[in-house]
Write a structure and sequence with these properties.
Layout (H helix, E strand, L loop, with lengths): L1 H16 L2 E6 L6 E2 L2 E2 L6 E6 L7 E3 L7 E6 L10 E5 L6 E4 L11 E4 L8 H9 L14 E3 L18 H32 L5 H29 L8 H30 L4 H31 L4 H30 L1
Helix pairs in contact: 3-4, 3-6, 3-7, 4-5, 5-6, 6-7
């Protein structure tokens, strides 16, 4: 009993008088700085996170990018979010990585108290380069989330750390599906319906499909804004954000141009300036959307890992819709000349 009490008092004293070692996670790119940390028993290693959000997660040396459950901060956005503090209880090596997307494979790794010989951080990073990511780490472990600048690392725990990586991946996927499905599939097919179909109420059908697509666009745009806000990405820092906002603004005007075109066509029974404005406005939106889709997919290289499957799906969709659109447009033009 006496020995236990003395040990507890000694450990408490070490923790109180240990130093705090500050580590930046994601400051300046997919890096942890410093990536080699030497800490004594009783020291606190304090991890500060930077946008677009990261984790500090431990793994075994031989299985980088796969959590071992000893240390995990959970996903932290950065900015005003809490820091993650790990109290060093022994000097055994702690191999760390970021569990978001392909950040681990991209070299976002570090080590606390590396061994004097044998395993090295260089070898750990080399192994991570071709490693397969393991399961998403579950829950905060091996440390505490505290308010930045808190003087009490043990009690000032903050519960909220923002959306999980799984939720952010779901938001990105939903954004991709809604925007591609509406702008690159429903809108052009709805436009082509006027050229290839002929039935009572065709104009109403065309207008309805376009308005449904516009509703999906607003939903997808909202998800994009949510993701940008939650990951603290500056609006002006990504062309994808700027061009996407421009496209949505142009889409808001398209129904107005369509209404003017239809009203004048119904009255004059011929195309007017409003007709060509409506047609070419839509084509310009389609081209800009194609470009912005590529810009959005390129963001996944730094955010969620392998972008190749997304590019494949995107290319197939664009190829099919583009072929149909060009074939129908050219066919209609030849038919008119005849």
């Amino acid at each position: 009993m006496l020995v236990t009490s003395i040990s507890t008092i000694l450990l408490f004293g070490v923790a109180v008088f240990g130093k705090t070692i500050n580590v930046d996670v994601g400051k300046g790119g997919l890096i942890i700085t410093p990536d080699t940390i030497t800490a004594a028993v009783g020291d606190h290693v304090q991890f500060a996170f930077y946008p677009t959000g990261h984790t500090v997660t431990s793994s075994d040396f031989n299985t980088p990018c796969s959590p071992n459950g000893l240390v995990n901060s959970g996903f932290i956005n950065g900015g005003p979010d809490p820091v993650f503090v790990v109290l060093i209880n022994d000097t055994n090596p702690i191999w760390l990585y970021c569990a978001l997307g392909n950040h681990c494979q991209s070299g976002m790794l570090a080590v606390i108290n590396p061994p004097s010989g044998g395993n090295t951080l260089t070898a750990y990073k080399a192994n991570a380069n071709s490693a397969t990511s393991g399961d998403d780490p579950a829950g905060v472990a091996g440390g505490s989330l505290v308010s930045p600048g808190s003087s009490d690392n043990s009690t000032d725990i903050v519960a909220f750390t923002g959306p999980s990586p799984q939720k952010l991946r779901a938001v990105r996927l939903a954004h991709f599906v809604l925007m591609v499905g509406s702008i690159l599939v429903i809108l052009p097919l709805g436009a082509l319906s006027l050229r290839v179909l002929n039935f009572p109420g065709l104009v109403a059908f065309h207008a309805t499909t376009q308005l449904v697509a516009l509703t999906f666009v607003f939903a997808g745009f909202g998800l994009g804004l949510y993701y940008r806000i939650k990951t603290f990405q500056a609006y002006s820092s990504q062309p994808h954000f700027i061009l996407g906002t421009t496209i949505v603004g142009m889409l808001v005007l398209q129904p107005i141009f369509g209404f003017i075109h239809h009203s004048l066509y119904k009255k004059l029974q011929k195309r007017t300036f409003a007709s060509y404005l409506h047609i070419w406005w839509g084509r310009i939106i389609f081209i800009l959307a194609l470009t912005n889709g590529v810009l959005g997919l390129k963001l996944t290289d730094s955010d969620i890992g392998n972008q190749k499957p997304g590019f494949i799906v995107y290319s197939i969709i664009v190829g099919i819709i583009g072929t149909i659109y060009i074939a129908v447009t050219v066919g209609v033009q030849f038919k008119r000349k005849e």
